[in-house]
What we know:
The structure holds two protein chains of two kinds.
Chain A: H1 11-31, H2 51-127, H3 132-152, H4 161-167, H5 177-208, H6 212-238, H7 246-263, H8 268-304, H9 329-354, H10 360-394
Chain B: H1 7-93, H2 98-122, H3 131-137, H4 147-178, H5 182-208, H6 216-233, H7 238-274, H8 300-321, H9 329-367
Helix pairs in contact in B: 1-2, 4-5, 4-7, 5-6, 6-9, 7-8, 8-9
Amino acid sequence: MPNHPNLGSPHHPIFQWKLFQSFMRQNRELHCSNALNTPKQTKSSREASSPFAELLTRRRGCTMADRSLTETLSEWNDLQKGNEGLQQVFQKYLDDLQTTSYKQSEISSNIARQHRHLADLAKSLRKCEHTPEAVALRIQIQQRDNELREMEGFLPKPSGKYLSLVLGNLNVTLFSKQAKFSYKVEYENFKLYLTCTCFLLTLALRLWNSYKTIDTLLNFLLVWYYCTLTIRESILVLNGSRIKGWWVTHHYISTFLTGVMLTWPDSIMYQKFRLQYLDFCIYLSLVQFLQYYYQSGSLYRLRALGQRRSLDITVEGFQSWMWRGLTFLLPVLFFGHFWQLYNAITLYEMACECGWQEWQVPVQSFTYLLLFVGNFSTTLRVLLQKLREKRQKIS
Amino acid sequence: MWRSHPPASRDSASGDCRGVCKAAIAPVGKMALNGCLMRWQELEEEYKGLQEAHRQYKQKLQEVTELQTSCSASIRCQKQKLQELLVHLRRYQTKASAEELDTVKALQQSIKERQAVFFDMDAFLPQKNSLYLSLVLGSINVTLLSRQAKFAYKDEYEKFKLYLTIILIVTSFACSFLVSYRVTDEIFNFLLVWYYCTLTIRESILISNGSRIKGWWVTHHYVSTFLSGVMLTWPDGEMYQIFRSQFLYFSLYQSFVQFLQYYYQSGCLYRLRALGERHNMDLTVEGFQSWMWRGLTFLLPFIFADHFWQLHNAITLFKLARHPLCKEWQVFVLAVTFLVLFLGNILTTLRVVQQKVQRKTESKSKIR
């Protein structure tokens, strides 16, 4: 271990020597009939009935104290021995770490090179004739690409811009399938707990409170929740999750929306919109709650059947695999999307009616509209895709 | 005359031409395919080597993980036993004789040194995340497993602070002198909230990696996040307009002091590190650390001015809170928060300065 002195062992003989000296001195004193240095451990209140009794008491007192210090020293000695072994193992660990990190960079660069060569080969293959051999080679190239990507799952990957900004150059790659899966499960649980918390808080605000101050607490919690979701999802994406497109952007937009809600002063317009907003939040929490249970149940079933990639997550929205037995969730989701449209319309009418002094009103109106358009079109697209696939299967 | 020629001959000529061309292309196409197949064979060979290297790497990774677990367990066990020994020694100290007292003290010192060694060793082993980090990141391991990586991460943290400080200087300058809309103020406040939140995350990661930044300097960022958040919610009114300029000038000055501190401290830290005199994970923080005494006395008045400006903000806000027109809760809360910040900052800075003066006088008396 660089820079760390091997402590303890030089001291140990000194302790033992001091202890031995102390033992010898006390024994000499105890045998001496002259005035003795009264050891501190003799109780002052106890009066010796005879010099022998006093000696015995002293010796007994001394022996007890020495034994406890001896015990301590022998324990320290044992720990010393254990520590020497530990230092050796630790040094081996540090050396192995170094070797592993060299191997990591070497293998990463080799894999990157293979990817490049495969891409060049695929390009030159396109210029060749369309023979069965060429087709077979193309398939093999594709397979090799997939195999390389699986290998990359065990190597540290550079974080994206967002993660680098928030976390710096921390490696957030999880090196085993089990670790990735448990991280995903943890993400789902985090969403569930926060959804429950937001649901309870919103319900409390809806029923018992009408002060903007406490609404602010809910809004800060929501902003923090969406920001944390974006961080965790970026980590999941880096580790191979295929959540994509709109569902990721959706969280950034929700962060922005809640932030704007935070800055909205307590005015007549705010009070007018407040109840609608809280009702909408309650509904959203319930939908997310429902989705979590149905999707995780479905996902476990599908995974048990080996039919889905492990990193698929429950997201706000309809993924393609959700068709199986989850049609009942669809109307619930669509109702949520249309509520967003209704919010957009309400806010727009409010802005037109009461003037455009509070900029939060038109901005939120536009943002809700954006959310509605994004959510609705993405859900519809997934639905249409599934219907088409079903029809193709039937035909 | 051309037209009287039967087109067939032309056709056959062109047909012959096409046939010749096809015959010419066919070997070329086949050559290209053969070239591709040869290249594929080469790549296959490379891939086999890569697979073997990857298999060995995975095996090594497995061994490293096992070593990590066993080292962590041993260290944990040793730390527990050391703690028990310390407790026992403390109890024994009261009834020890004079010679034994020396032994006991020396043993206690050795135990404390061993504990420091284990603290440093822990920085190379995966740790369970603190509550804050596990809330934000989940169970991602944030331990950087080499000194070089830790140092690089720390450097990056310092640069992040520097760049954001520059951005904050520019933004607060713009809000103070160029624009005066509540919207731009909101953007500035959101930037502050995000900056302080990100700092808290990065500092938690640094602490997990063995940094010794502690106590007030960490809490200070959480308090600043809260302050900026409350500032965010303050609606635009008369009270806000009265306080606005003071707050923006203060933010500008504070960012400027942080900028100065960065340059002086990083220079000093590099010098000390080159002399091997400081723990590598010390950071430049808002405040005066004990080693900063060396040649940095000139920064002290700037730092004290910053603290006293916070007190001035607190007093202004307390006065505003008693204003008849003041209805906003933010005013009083901000006043209390600025006061807390002032007290924390001034007490910590004074304590560090006092410690240094004491050490200087002690070393001077020893020399004499």
